[in-house]
Amino acid sequence: MKLFRFDRLAWIFMRVSGFILIALIFTHLTVNLMQDGGVKAIDFAFVAGKLANPFWQWFDVTLLWLALIHGSNGMRVVVNDYVERTGVRRFLLASLVISTTTLIVLGTLVIFTLDPCPVGSPSDLLPSFCPAG
Ligand code: HEM
Q1: Which residue's CA lies nearest to atom 39 of ligand 1?
Q2: Distance, CA 91 to ligand 1 centroid (Å)?
Q3: How far is the CA of 123 from the centre of ligand 1 (A)?
Q4: Helix, strand, coil content of the chain in percent (nearest 5)
Q5: pLDDT tens across 68-107, in order?
């Protein structure tokens, strides 16, 4: 048995990330939905306020990476199990790598570079800590 074979590491990753994702997703849903006003209170100020806080930045980036890698690795297993034609399988696996990588890069950039106080925005849409908010 090779200790560090890719499929063995992937099998362990799915169990560990699945366990962590349960805690992250329930926290995410509770914090975003249990505020006053529920889902209707989610606006730019709410999201920008959260993403200005390093705790929520790292929380979100962990959720983003784990959810995307967990989901796409699950799809990789389904494709390998069910798609018999080599060309189609290669195309689907390559599409998975490209879409997952794109979403991880874009999501990470959004989380760490979002400007919570864009110049020229109406003050009632901005978080309260902005000079114009
Ligand atoms: C009713 C269900 C949901 C609501 C209302 C909701 C709401 C939100 C809101 C308002 C944000 C931006 C502010 C923040 O970071 O909290 C966000 C971001 C995010 N949510 Fe959710 N969410 C829901 C379900 C989920 C689920 C099930 C997942 C994962 C399996 C998820 C993954 C994420 C991720 C990764 C981000 C960060 C995205 C980024 O900026 O790149 N969400 N969600």
Answers
A1: 107
A2: 29
A3: 25
A4: 75, 0, 25
A5: 999 999 999 999 999 999 999 999 999 999 999 999 999 9
